[in-house]
């Protein structure tokens, strides 16, 4: 059965910004606002151990990791710039009563 968890108020994440959140099991995720649409990936870069929410920068739908400048498409999780060559897990988000929620 699909379950969901409330993360934070959608209004707290402006367009172009990244924010860290945690799943109920403690898994860190990075939440992105791409021009008013929300996406989430696992927070840890698949190249090494960088936190994308802390060390990443969002350019449109692309997050660039600040450690070695690898990139992912946050809408699909696809690794699209070396040295990142392993896709990153994505999570499905939705907004309910102004709150951003994640399907777990
Ligand atoms: S840790 Fe992210 S590109 Fe190296």
Automatic annotation (TrEMBL):
- Domain of life, per UniProt, equals Bacteria
UniProt KW keywords: 2Fe-2S, Iron, Iron-sulfur, Metal-binding
Give the organism the record lists: Spectribacter hydrogenoxidans
Asked if the record carries the keyword Membrane, the reply is no
Q: Which InterPro entries does the protein's record reference? A: Rieske_2Fe-2S, Rieske_2Fe-2S_sf
Residue ranges annotated for the Rieske domain, each copy included:
5-102
So which cofactors does this thing need? [2Fe-2S] cluster
Record's protein name? Non-heme iron oxygenase ferredoxin subunit
One Pfam family this chain carries?
A: Rieske
Would you identify the family this protein belongs to, as annotated?
A: Belongs to the bacterial ring-hydroxylating dioxygenase ferredoxin component family.
């Amino acid at each position: 059965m699909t379950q969901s968890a409330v993360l934070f108020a959608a209004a707290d994440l402006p367009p172009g910004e990244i924010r860290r959140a945690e799943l109920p099991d403690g898994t860190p995720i990075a939440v992105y606002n791409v021009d008013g649409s929300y996406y989430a990936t696992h927070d840890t870069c698949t190249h090494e151990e960088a936190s994308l929410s802390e060390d990443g920068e969002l350019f449109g739908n692309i997050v660039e990791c600040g450690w070695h400048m690898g990139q992912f498409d946050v809408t699909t999780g696809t690794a699209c710039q070396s040295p990142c060559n392993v896709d990153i897990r994505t999570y499905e988000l939705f907004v309910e009563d102004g709150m951003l929620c994640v399907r777990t």
